[in-house]
Design a protein that fits this description.
The chain is built from 8 helices and no strands. It has about 190 residues and is mostly helical. The radius of gyration is 20 Å and the shape is globular.
Amino acid sequence: MQSGSWIFRVEPHSDESFGHFMGRFRRANELSHRAIAEQLGIRIQWVQSWDSPSRRRNPTPLQMIALSKLTDVAPEQLAKMLPSEPLHLQTRLCSVCYAEVPVHRSTWQRANVELCDQHSVQFLSACPECHTGLRTPALWEDDCCEKCGLPFAQMLGQPKPKQERSEASLLQAVAPKRDRKQLSKRQQ
């Protein structure tokens, strides 16, 4: 962008996923999906769908050029960030890679690939502590599990077996709200 621009430049990392980059760009500039859509002259639904690769709606070539002008990142570099086909739909991460550089990488979402090509560790699709699935990378603002707060970079161990979960957390997950109230009264 021109000097004096109101946009903060966000430097994309090598192999960063498109959705994660756009999330970082939006947060750095305090922009909503609507604000980006207005800047690009497109519908808000298009911008929202870019966060989630499973929606399979990538920017058109003209949108990519406009997005390049807005973000100050070359259209070719933005195109390299787009999800590959076929795509593993559940969000995954290599915690070792993330500890080195805290960005979601597009290579983690390739279908039929279960191990990180750099570290030979299995990709995680859920927190090993609480078993909560990972959020869409565009929403990774705090770099940790949204439920228990375990940092992504510390998700190195094997997941706990589900049977080790506490009775209370199992109850909370499966019992209707009224049943939980009744059981908690009985436990007191």
